[in-house]
Write a structure and sequence with these properties.
phospholipid biosynthesis, alpha/beta, 344 residues, transferase, single chain, lipid biosynthesis, FA_synthesis
């Protein structure tokens, strides 16, 4: 593509705070991460947002027409609006004009657009969205997947999630031998519903991962697991609950610490510690989830994402590119690639 820098297509119209916060996060990433950003969306709105931000470098705008609204059904919306921002952004990756896509818009539309335009990786039946969560150990996180791409799953889907998650954990998060767990209601192999029992048997027999058994809800953030797999219905509920707990914790600290003079002095002394707490529990610090299993790098961010979260989403995209996540997942499978147009 003529440049050593990673080129990231940004869906500038996706999200509650688009395009202003999306543009602000993209500009920061362009400056601090040494990446090229392509802002996809309504040119006049993007130019207005750029005019509100100080920057000394050129930014490429790729025009699009409309966006997929949250109330729209993903597939029908994508077909009615072929030039919507998420469609155009995915086409940039398909055409090799960009290396990755970042979107804070309709997550279902982002996944469907990725499947329609990029297709699945070889050997992958369903893509999964992976979210990185903090644990009680300061220097350790856990990758939870799926957190929303597939509300209904088969055992082989969860097995593929485990393999993809293990690869991501190893090469991007730096875990030497990721410990994989299956989310369940008990530690015993025979616990859970039919899906859990059958998946447990498959994971035990898979020599491509280090499966250590079932993970109960209380174990998710214990630090005993590096990757935990579940269906997207449960995963999405867990993710949003974890985000809410983090927000509640930060709000309680803001309200309780400054009480009185001693509280104000204590808050000032504790400011470095409080900043570290925020970095560990604030979902904005993680940027979003990587859509694993499609033939392109796609980061799906929270709909309420503001500039810091978009910056971190772009950082995640760059890390996935730099560590060749797609190539490493593909090397684990040798089946023919699924046709790009097959979306159920």
């Amino acid at each position: 593509m003529g440049s050593a820098r990673a080129r990231i297509a940004i869906d500038a119209m996706g999200g509650d705070h688009a395009p202003a916060e999306i543009v602000a996060g993209a500009l920061r990433a362009r400056e601090e991460l040494d990446v090229e950003v392509l802002l996809v969306g309504d040119s006049s709105q993007i130019e207005a947002a750029l005019g509100q931000q100080a920057h000394s470098f050129p930014i490429e705008i790729v025009p699009s027409e409309g966006t997929i609204e949250m109330h729209e059904e993903p597939l029908s919306g994508l077909k009615r609006k072929p030039k919507a921002s998420i469609n155009v952004a995915m086409d940039l990756v398909k055409q090799k004009r960009a290396d990755a896509v970042v979107s804070a818009g309709h997550s279902g539309a982002a996944m469907a657009a990725a499947l329609l335009r990029l297709g699945r990786l070889k050997g992958i039946d369903r893509p999964a969205i992976g979210a990185v969560l903090p644990t009680i150990l300061a220097d350790k996180s856990v990758l939870l997947l799926d957190v929303g791409a597939n509300v209904d799953c088969r055992p082989k889907f969860l097995e593929q999630f485990a393999v993809m998650g293990s690869i991501y954990s190893q090469y991007v998060l730096g875990v030497t031998e990721p410990k994989v767990g299956l989310l369940n209601i008990g530690e015993e192999p025979g616990k859970g519903n039919d899906l859990a029992i059958r998946t447990h048997q498959m994971l035990e027999q898979n020599d491509r991962i280090s499966f250590v058994g079932n993970a109960e809800g209380r174990d998710l953030l214990s630090g005993n697991f590096d990757v935990v797999v579940c269906d997207g219905f449960v995963g999405n509920v867990l993710l949003k609950f974890a985000e809410a707990v983090g927000e509640v914790m930060l709000q309680i600290l803001k309200e309780e610490l400054p009480q009185g003079l001693h509280g104000l002095l204590g808050t000032a002394l504790l400011k470095p510690n409080l900043n570290r707490i925020k970095q560990r529990v604030d979902h904005a610090e993680h940027g979003g989830g990587l859509l694993l299993g499609v033939a392109g790098i796609c980061i799906i961010s929270h709909g309420a994402s503001q500039a810091p979260s978009i910056f971190n989403a772009i950082r995640l995209a760059k890390e996935a590119i730099d560590h060749q996540v797609l190539e490493r997942i593909t090397s684990n499978y040798h089946q023919p690639a699924a046709p790009a147009a097959e979306v159920e």
